[in-house]
Specification:
The complex is a heterodimer of chains A (about 300) and B (about 180). Chain A has one domain (about 55-290): Beta Barrel (Porin), CATH 2.40.160. With about 300 residues, chain A is mostly beta strands. The two termini of chain A are about 50 Å apart. In chain A, strand 3 (about 85-95) and strand 4 (about 100-105) form a beta hairpin. Chain A is built from 3 helices and 14 strands. The longest helix of chain A has 15 residues, at about 1-15. In chain A, strands 2-3-4-5-7-8-9-10-11-12-13-14 form a 12-stranded antiparallel beta barrel. Chain B is an alpha+beta fold. Chain B has a single domain (about 20-180), classed as Lipocalin (Beta Barrel). Chain B is about 20% helix and about 50% strand. Chain B has 3 helices and 9 strands; from the N terminus they run αββββαββββαβ. Chain B has an 8-stranded antiparallel β-barrel with strand order 1-2-3-5-6-7-8-9. The longest helix of chain B has 17 residues, at about 1-20. The two termini of chain B are about 35 Å apart. The model of chain B has no long low-confidence stretch (mean pLDDT about 90). The chains are: A mainly beta (about 300), B alpha+beta (about 180).
Amino acid sequence: MRRLAFAFIVLLIPVVLPAQDDLMNLLNANSAPEINYSTATFKSTRIVNGHSIERMAPGQLDVRISHRFGTINSGAYNFWGLDQSNIHLGLEYGITKWLMAGIGRGSYQKTFDGFTKFSVLRQSTGARVMPVSLSIFTSAALVSQHWPDETRTNYFSSRLAYTAQVLIARKFSPGLSFQLTPSYIHRNLVSTEMDPNDIYSIGAGGRVKVSKRISLNAEYYYMVNPKTYMSSQIYNPLSLGIDIETGGHVFQLLFTNSLAMIEKGFIGETAGSWKKGDIHFGFNLSRVFTLQKPQVRENQK
Amino acid sequence: MKRIFVFFLLVNLAFAANAQKYMTKSGYIGFFSHTSMEDIKGDNNQVAGVLDVSTGDMVLQALVKSFHFEKALMEEHFNENYMESEKFPKASFKGKITNLSSLNLSKNGTYDVTVEGDLTIRDVTKKVSAKGTVEVATGSITANSKFPIVPEDFKIEIPGVVREKIAKNLEVTVTMKYLPL
């Protein structure tokens, strides 16, 4: 009888105590493996000047105000460039989970621009393994500056330039992301016959998080076209930035050798050189508004 | 030895026969933070759970990334800065209805219950106890509860700049409609 009582105690305890573990195992056995998508590869839709793989979520409007000041080597008289200011205003909206579009206006050549960015692949682990995220970016820019020569026949199409980019990004760890950006730019009109209408380039950019809310970013575009055949000295754009996130805002403070804030400008028309000190201080300010609330079932009753 | 073995079998058989397990994969857990500066609400409609009505044992499991917010940035910050969902993808609860005797499963109705157990968020496990109700209906059992949690209990760091925007106590709402397994 004592043995029986002992058996009762010994056997009952293991049956009752791990019951919750059993339930947990039962739960896991009944759950399909999930796909874990990588999110927040970058803090913002821009690495510095160029687009990152990030998109606006559906229904979210990003109001962007960006500035590039004059060059730092312009000296104390120009307050190291701060006396001059170049501005770009943007309204960018997430249409679906995989598509965003935006419009903008930059003071550089009085340019209007519009773009779309859509997601083709999303980096994931779990039930589906995908090593990288891939998006396609397309944009058009319209230079609205007065014609330099009003006497010749000027076509409207000559104001236009187009960009296509493939954004390939990987978030290696929560703190480290990298992106490659092969880019193609077509300019309907160029200054002289020496200048190519088509510019091929490859961009590389990345970010390192230094804290949960601050990251260091760098970005470089290498122009494949030989620059010696261009009528003016063009440099590859190199930009270094720091992202600071404060609730609904992302501030990007940056240094770059390019003045323009759209692809057609900073890839094909960067006239500044880091070596000579033609460095512009600038910032991108992003404020996100929710225009359309996502549908969430409050309760399942 | 033989006797023990037979007894073991009997005990297990008895439990297996009694085990009436209910399950859902689309339960709801939401949390709400109210301050004068901002209201923050996160909803997760993909919570999985099993309830064993013969013992009162229950488990819940939620993917942190399945919490959705009105503002996409809130969702990003929730995952990136507070919950670190890549490091800690799941939150779970293992517990028990402590007053199972007050529950009459053969009669439809709403019963008050108390649940006690271990809540694990960000690999930090804390004992919690919450009052709630169990609604017995034909073919389903719905468990409801509301209880407060303190983010700091789970080593969630909230920087000074945004401390005013996040309530000291978050109100957690749980609604699980279980179906027989």
